[in-house]
Write a structure and sequence with these properties.
Blueprint lengths: L2 E14 L2 E14 L3 E5 L6 H8 L7 E6 L2 E2 L5 H11 E5 L10 H11 L4 H14 L15 H13 L5 E5 L7 H18 L2 E6 L2 H4 L4 E6 L2 E4 L1
Parallel strand pairs: 3-8, 3-9, 6-7, 7-8
Antiparallel strand pairs: 1-2, 1-4, 4-5, 9-10
Helix pairs in contact: 3-4, 3-5, 4-5, 5-6
C-alpha cells in the first residue's frame, strides 16, 4: 500500500538569540491509506509543529516530507496550497469557524475556494452536515450552536473535500466529557467508513488507545508504543 505521508529524517530546530533548541530530531514514519495514528506527548513537545511540517505550513530544518510521493518543501506556495487542500482536512482544538457564516456556508467554503460551483458546494455541504447529525442546524451561525455542534461543523468542513488524511490537533481538548466522546466516535466512524487516514496529536491516552497505532514524541524523538 502506498504512503500518503512519509517523513524522512525530519528535524526541526528554532533559534532564540544564541541558543538553538531542537524540537524534532531525525524522525521517520509513514501514514498509509486508512491508518488511524495517535501521537502522544506533553504540551510543548512538538506535536503541533510536526503537523505543521506535514502540512507544509512550516519548513523542516533537515529532512523531507512527502505527500503522495511529492516533496512538499520543493513546491512554490501556490502548488503547496493546492497539494494541502487536495489531500488534508484539518480539525483543531478550537473550531475556527467564521462567525458571520451559517453552518452550511462554513462547510462549503473549502469547496468554493477550490473552484466548485455554488450549487454543488452547498449540496455537498448539506450531505456531510447531515452525516454528522446537523441536518437541523444548516442555517445556524456558530453563536447559535453548542460547543459540540461547532466542533461537528468543523469536522464536516474537514471532510467535505474527501481528503486523503485528516490532521487533528487535540480535537476534543475544548469539549466536556460527553461531547468529547461523541466527537471522537464521529471522527473514527468517518475514518473507517471513508478510508480516510487519521493522524491525531493528543496528550490523552484514552483517545490514543482507540487508534490502530500509537507513537509518543519525547526528547525530540518519535517512538512506537
Amino acid at each position: 500500500m502506498s504512503n500518503i505521508i512519509e517523513c524522512r529524517s525530519l528535524s526541526f530546530s528554532y533559534i532564540d538569540g544564541n541558543n538553538q533548541t531542537s524540537v524534532l530530531n531525525n524522525l521517520n514514519f509513514e501514514v498509509e491509506l486508512g491508518d488511524s495514528i495517535a501521537i502522544l506527548g506533553q504540551s510543548g513537545c512538538g506535536k503541533s509543529t510536526l503537523l505543521n511540517l506535514i502540512a507544509g505550513l512550516d519548513s523542516p530544518s533537515e529532512g523531507d516530507v512527502l505527500i503522495n510521493n511529492i516533496n512538499i518543501a520543493k513546491l512554490n506556495e501556490k502548488d503547496r496550497t493546492e497539494l494541502r487542500s487536495n489531500n488534508f482536512g484539518f480539525v483543531y482544538q478550537f473550531h475556527h469557524l467564521l462567525n458571520d457564516f451559517s453552518s452550511i456556508y462554513n462547510v462549503a467554503l473549502p469547496l468554493l475556494i477550490r473552484g466548485d460551483n455554488k450549487e454543488s458546494a452547498i449540496l455537498n455541504s448539506k450531505k456531510i452536515l447531515t452525516k454528522v447529525g446537523l441536518e437541523n442546524r444548516l442555517n445556524h451561525n456558530p453563536s447559535e450552536l453548542s460547543g459540540g455542534e461547532r466542533q461537528r461543523v468543523a469536522i464536516a468542513r474537514a471532510m467535505v473535500t474527501e481528503p486523503a488524511c485528516i490532521l487533528a490537533d487535540e480535537p476534543t481538548g475544548n469539549l466536556d466529557a460527553k461531547n468529547a466522546k461523541d466527537v471522537l466516535e464521529l471522527i473514527l466512524e468517518l475514518n473507517e467508513n471513508n478510508t480516510t487516514s487519521l493522524l491525531i496529536v493528543t496528550h490523552d491516552l484514552s483517545i490514543a488507545n482507540k487508534m490502530n497505532r500509537k507513537l509518543t514524541l519525547s526528547n525530540s524523538k518519535l517512538v512506537d508504543i
